[in-house]
Amino acid sequence: MNFRWRTVDIVVASVIAVAFGVVFWAWDLLYNGPFKAIPLPGQAILYGVWLVPAVLGALVIRKPGAAIYTELVAAVISALLGNAWGATVVPEGLLEGLGAEIVFLVLLYRSFGLVTSLIAGAAAGAAAGIFDAFAFYPGYSWASFRLPYVALAALSSLVIAGGGGWALTKALAQAGALDRFPSGRERATV
């Protein structure tokens, strides 16, 4: 397998990242608006939306660094557009991408199925939840708040980022949008 990034890899990863940076901006408005009515730590069940680019980028590009790159660039775009957390989303985006990236690395960038995607989503969500536990909720109890928060963030990310990222990759491949990538060449012939 060739792990060297091509120009098309960089362009597509960047497009995914920028698109999700805008999605993050809109999601921030909902999360800090109507969804604020959900009591903490329950709000973490909505967390997975912020982790989709890490899983999607890795599933589409299938090269080292794709999860980190797409999540980090999406976080930077989100920070530049403005959000409730400011620049703290940038180091968090790096850790979220790293959470997903480690799963693909452990599997030597050879497994890109649903189970791998789900695990990568959960790992990214756990990384995000742990970051939040220290950055935003340092005075809260681990037993009654922080562990449930991390668990809910991981569960949300397993379903939304892992399952959603996998489904989105399959849909893009079926549409022919990923024909220049191994992920696009796996689509079922009709």
What helical percentage do the residues reach?
55-70%
Proportion of beta-strand residues: under 5%
The top-level CATH class is Mainly Alpha
Structural class: mainly alpha
**Biggest sheet statistics:** none
Secondary structure tally: strands:
0
Shape: globular
**Number of discrete helical segments:** 7
The CATH architecture term is Orthogonal Bundle
CATH topology type: Arp2/3 complex 21 kDa subunit ARPC3
- pLDDT < 50 runs, ≥5 residues: none
Distance between the termini: 27 Å
In round numbers, the mean pLDDT is 93
Number of domains: 1
SSE run: HHHHHHH
Radius of gyration: 16 Å
Essential attributes:
ABC_thiamin-permease_prd; mainly alpha; 67% helix; 190 residues; ECF transporter S component; transmembrane; Arp2/3 complex 21 kDa subunit ARPC3
Please explain how this structure is put together.
The chain is an all-alpha fold. It has a single domain, classed as Orthogonal Bundle (Arp2/3 complex 21 kDa subunit ARPC3). 67% of the residues lie in helices and 0% in strands. The protein contains seven helices and no strands. The chain has helices spanning 7-31, 52-61, 66-81, 89-106, 114-135, 142-174, 182-185. Helix 1 crosses helix 3, helix 3 (66-81) runs antiparallel to helix 4 and helix 4 packs antiparallel against helix 5 (114-135). The two termini are 27 Å apart. This is ECF transporter S component. InterPro entries: ABC_thiamin-permease_prd. The chain crosses the membrane at residues 7-27, 39-61, 68-87, 107-137, 149-168. Keywords: Membrane, Transmembrane, Transmembrane helix.
